[in-house]
Amino acid sequence: MAKKLGEIMIQSGWIDEEKLNKALKFQQQQGCLIGEALIKLHYASEEQVAQALGKQLGIPYASKENQILNPEKGQGLEKVIPEKFARDHAVIPIFIEDGVLAAAVTDPTNIMMLDNIKLVSGMEVHLYISTKAQILKVIDSFYQSQTSLIDKVIDGGADSSKGGDSSEADVITADGKLDLDKVIIGDSKGAQSIKLVNAIMKQAISERTSDIHLEKFDEKVSLRLRIDGVLYERSAPPNELVDAMISRVKILSKLDISERRLPQDGSFSIKYQNRVIEIRVSVCPTVFGEKLVMRILDRGSVELNVSLIGFEARQKEDFLKAAAAPNGLIFLTGPTGSGKTTTLNAVLNTIKSPELNIMTLEDPVEIKMEGISQVQIKPQIGLTFASGLRSFLRQDPDVILVGEVRDNETAEACLKAAMTGHLVLSTLHTNSALEAVPRLLDMGIERYLLASTLLCLAAQRLVRQLCPDCKTPYRPPAGELDQFLTECMINPLPDPSKLSFYKPKGCPKCNNMGYKGRKAIYEVYFNTEEMKRIIYKDADVQALAASAAKSGAWNLRASGWRKVMAGVTSVEDMLSVTVTER
Asked: What's the pLDDT tens digit per position in 99-116?
């Protein structure tokens, strides 16, 4: 007799008896399957339930991690199972062997769907089990790649009918920018690699990509685009062209094409659809060859408006109140890639005026702004954050932005600048805003000086925005509702019977991802008199958090729940980027 799903989950160590009993009660109340109950109560992940169901039914589990959920190319799978059928039924073809189609589904017990797959494919079917999220993600990369710009170039059909000249001079403008709107004609290996580099950048920009990853492995080439913080695979170029493509990017970035043993960093600009886009390049040697990462800095896609980047009304008021002060310290914390630079530049864009001399020290300068003096640090020649900041003080600044405080020398320089009549904004790498206090004290800053000069501490994360055209409302289940009421820090609490949250669905407007763009969530703590006394006394983080909450401020998780309530993001995405306060 087959074991029950709950028993398998317990034996695997994913849940305990108590959670199973709660899930069974929830199942009876909601009339759902036990697996759904465990997922909705956040007792288990979709992957764990799928693996347990696979064990129960004797069906293999497929995922990107175990490399099974990776459709074979060249077998015509996209014609055997059309894209619309795959999306409608959450099924992905994996390979064909001896006339049998291997396919991954979310519910292997659905006999009617199995019959439909047989009917559409005309083959016998061998089933694998996977999660809906993983299957849809693979569908995105597999089917979209079939008609991408990159594929057209690989097949030799990109722009071949438009005419032009194959020389590099034809695509480089007078001011040294690569013009992606120009065409290269030619069948040589060099021309093909140039076409591919251009096609990859065009497709990346059209898909709102932040980073392009190109690398070789033992038996394959990988091309991935980071969209809204998540990497998606796209059709890879031929192995024999990768080295030529990397050399092409090195030439554009003015790097040494003969050096393949050491990492190299560079940059170049491109002109595309009447706008100039900066490309930051990093080349790193790996055991299989060089890996190329290109970061796309599209100034036209950056919103430098503090009312639109994600601040709640109270948070914006507190941050701008600190930014309006004549002197003091403002610190914004968060991991790499969380949007700190965009936030600080949006604040500077708000307060800048002809009456203020604003100067920035950055590594590198990502967003170029009118009316602000921006300097890129160059440690190799002695221009560091600390040395640059000392020279800034002789430039009569009113406001100074320091890209990042990395050491005690920079921290002390920021403090001295703040104490001598300047407003200083900077960033730190800490898990929360209030943890910046002990971090600065560890750098050697005196408690009484920090208490008197600190104006505001903030932290931020980025959540993916639900596609407004296809997001689906639902009533939050009991477990999710309890978590919301416990963590939202809203007083008075909202009426649970009137709450609706939203989840992703997927449509053509969002490339069937369910999400489109990202928005920041914040915690903002204006330094009150009580918080100053706590910093001066012992700088206890929990006491600071309690004092901030008493004054009406809230943490990142509570800010995230407000975005969920507003239908901006999903519960799952918000929980993935925030942590519960200890």
From this structure: 899 999 998 988 988 999
